[in-house]
Design a protein that fits this description.
- The complex is a heterodimer of chains A (about 425) and B (about 325).
- In chain A, about 50% of the residues lie in helices and about 10% in strands.
- A five-stranded mixed sheet of chain A has the order 2-1-3-11-6. Chain A has a four-stranded mixed sheet with strand order 8-9-7-10. In chain A, strands 4-5 form a two-stranded antiparallel ribbon.
- With about 425 residues, chain A is α/β, with parallel strands linked by helices.
- In chain A, helix 9 crosses helix 18 and helix 15 packs antiparallel against helix 16.
- In chain B, helix 5 runs parallel beside helix 9.
- Helices cover about 70% and strands about 0% of the residues of chain B.
- Chain B has two domains: about 50 residues, no CATH class; about 240 residues, MetI-like (MetI-like fold, Orthogonal Bundle).
- The two termini of chain B are about 50 Å apart.
- The relative contact order of chain B is 0.12.
- Classes of the chains: A alpha/beta (about 425), B mainly alpha (about 325).
- Chains A and B meet through helix 1, helix 3, helix 10 and helix 17 of A and helix 2 and helix 14 of B.
Chain lengths: ~425, ~325
Amino acid sequence: MANGVSRRDALRYSAAILGGTALAGSSLTRAFAQQTARVRFAGYVESQEQLTQTLAVLKLYSDKHPDVEIVPEFTNFRAFTDKIATETAGGNAPDMFSVNVDLLAEYARRDVSMPLDQYIPDPLDLTSYLGSAVNAAKFDGKQYAIPNDAIAPAIFMNQASFDKAGIPIPAEMWTWEELREVSAKLGKDLGPRFWGVEDAGGNYIPCDIFLRGRGKSMFTPDHRLGFEPEDMEAWFAYWKSMREAGAVPPGDVQALSSNDDPSTAGIVAGRTAMAITLTDSFVGYQSLLQDPLVLHLMPNGFEGGEMEQRHYSYAGNSTSVSAKSPYHEQIIDIIHFMHFDPEGARVFYEGSGMIPCSGILRDELAQTGSEADRKIIEYLNLLQKNPAKPRYPGVPGMSGMLGRANEGVAFGQLTPKEAADQFIGEVSARL
Amino acid sequence: MTITSAPTAPRARPPAGRRKVGLNARQNKAAFVFLAPWIIGMVCLTLGPILASFYLSLTDYDMFTAPEWIGGQNYVKMFSEDRRYFQALKVTFTYVFLSVPLKLAFALAIAMLLNRGLKGLGFYRSIYYLPSLLGGSVAVAIMWRQVFSYDGVINQFLLKFGISGPSWITSPDYALYTLVALAVWQFGSPMVIFLAGLKQIPQDVYDAAEVDGATPVRKFFAVTLPLLTPIIFFNFVMQTIGAFQAFTPAYIVSNGTGGPADSTLFYTLYLYEQAFTNFQMGYASAMAWVLVAIIAVVTAISFFSARYWVHYGDQR
């Protein structure tokens, strides 16, 4: 074996092999490119169920369209934002990708996403879609994304905990003061190591609703802060008073909950009776719990103040198209399949925990979906009776800023006023 | 490629006695061809990005639009306005100063234990080395999170003695120390190097000390430790550099936030947050260069101090 091959021969052969591979590779890709459009679809999902259904609908599409190969790249939200930013910066943006309200503004402003108005209403007819969600997917008056789902803020209540403590489920319209009272009582009756509600002081949507109860909002439509420092101070002071009343877990227990993992949430882990979150977590939380969960409105105002429905509905997940992709036609067809093809839409939504943004599909899901789906649809319909002002885009990383400020108060490092100043300083620098 | 060239190697190489000094041009060419993948890799994948990051550190760059030249402003902002930057420095220095000496002491102690002519030494060495192999991994950090959590093993053990432990990883008072403990637990790689160093110390030196009536403690301080100083120095430098760059454990244990309340905001974690959450790539690049400078200074100080405490055998 060792004889007959000199070093020169070895070099020559390896070069030939390398060159041959390169040639073969390029001609192969070229041959493929002529027949198959390779569409990369990157996105985030809220649950395993959503991932399963999304992959299933994409596979179904590919099966029906052998000329389109879809490469799915799905992950959780946090990992997704890092990944898409890096890929886009490297000139390797996926052909289509998920966005939320904040990311949409970021990517539309920088011309990464393309406006889709030319495809509306034909073939993408959004007439029956939730108006607030369609509007939230606009930037500069142009439609930059197609909303997939409809979500709204809510408070989940564990019926069993309320029964055990002998406390009735609060009325539909209630105040922030009542939330404190009920939570403190739940903590007192069912403790130790049990509290009424999870600390939502670091969560910006309830904060926005709290501010709206004071006649303000987190942001204004023209992308500025919509509140005064004392409003934010009141927010942090409210959660401080909740901690002091034993209504929410102390800082070190609260920090056990992670947004990315529903099993760590206080209500799922059996630490709290209530959780303030978004409707798209409902199916995931319920699947991890034996006790039935109640979907309820958050407080809508303050004692003696004006009570008004302030919960906006929007899309937690919309699909945006890369301006640089060579496959616009195919991408629109994929979106059309997921939203308007009866079979495609059924696979995409049913059992995914997502509630369709389309009214037609929502009505269908109300008939065929699970008990949890029905509860969410009922809740969303309730909100549409008296729609609130829409949510205005903020800045990426905002949850982290609010969360850090709230933790600072929880661990006694900051006063509510200092926390408010810190948060305002950090957000202003990014606006 | 390796399959075809490997068998020819012994034949192609001239016998040692006939080898001439200096290589002829043809051989040079071959060498460069074989080195090419590595050289291209180094220039394109290492050197290029390093230089690019230095340029970016002098710009305002959000990853989407073209970088905008702002001179030294990122560096000025870092040291004048950014309170979280100082928190990141504080956390990182605390971590380095605690974890490196503790880890080295632990590694040396285990190495001495294993150096006593145990049967099945290879087995024990592998067992003790195992945590280091898993060390940088996500799995161990997740396990650590479980062990030290509110309802974790540590607290359940303490509860048996009637002590209600805190939630270690989610309390700003303890979170950093659990990460120090995690680092110390991964003592395997310095231990293996210590073990090799211990085996290098000639037995006759110990015999001589024994004849002179030295106690085991005296032998450790007068023989083992001085003769081991080059190894200690090597381990110290490597571990210090590694500790400054610690990222994975903090990222996993704090869910990427550096929390609670920035108590585990490692330098690299903050850099990552600036780059990928806040899209401040220029600022993040500047932070990276300051970290390089810090590591260079600390390493230089170590080398400078070495002449006072490191004893190389041949200099005696």
